[in-house]
């Protein structure tokens, strides 16, 4: 029985992206464990993984918990449990894991796979931040058996870091077409609108994103404040450290009655189905699942013209605007309100495009990747 350890910085990442992977490989007979900050306390993850382990880590590259505490915890865990594959996600967890397991990996005791959900160095990034994250990736690259990327820009960067033979392209983390592509009952959408206090003539835009700086919720609020229509509303689904700051900004802009902060939600398909468009003004993405989820239901998307978002929305699948250009974002939102037939066609283009990102396809690609990793390292006999 192969043994797989999935590592991320926080347990929330498991819930948002990785539970289908753990469940799938357990069905195939694998032992699948997870390691992240707070993982054993995550009820949803406990229901899917075989075992969960706490590793002291944070997203802050300068946090002293990462080095050496996180490294020590991971090294002890992997040496004790004897995993065949360690698959790590998110940049800080990836650096800590690869450095902690450098000797383990170079001795051929197991294989390390790193999925980059959008490198944190990019053309629009701050030079100091770019230099820091590129340095981390360069230092850890020798201890990477396979580096998985999700867009063409990151593929080129990965090939410079680890070489073409160890770079693996996959079309995103996958979206469950059966779940997100199933229209919600009209009654559910009506109940949702009623809970927001919206009448039939009051459209809303939806942004699904964690409240962190790179998602640029501030731009969405600023653009929304420029719309001439008093009937439109703006809905945010998500949580994060900037949530209260964005609530305060909405109040200062005089938008409190038309902006809704819903926090973490489990009814995302219903939220999407009721929206006129979804927004993602991020300055950095890998291949955003929020837009793919919107595509599943044929709802048009508006996004910043950056890697990942550009790949999804190009060629008529949505509307793009320059990062930070609030007026351009407002014009795109106004276009959606004024041209429903054209934006509906965009949604249909997106619906056709999303088939390539079906979760079932991505799971199959992971099976192939893991088999390649196992073939390069025979599994020891265990009693």
Count of β-strands: 13
Count the domains: 2
Helical amount? 40-55%
Which structural class do the helices and strands define? alpha/beta
How much of the sequence is in beta strands? 15-25%
Order of helices and strands: EHEHEHEHHEHEHEHHEHEHEHEHEHEHHH
CATH topology of the largest domain: Rossmann fold
- What's the story with the biggest beta sheet? 7 strands, parallel
Shape from CA axes?
globular
Quaternary class: single chain
The name of the CATH architecture of the largest domain is 3-Layer(aba) Sandwich
Strand order of the largest sheet: 3-2-1-4-5-6-7
- Secondary structure tally, helices: 17
What is the CATH class name of the largest domain?
Answer: Alpha Beta
Distance between the termini: 10 Å
Overview in brief:
This protein has about 375 residues and is an alpha/beta fold. The termini are close together.
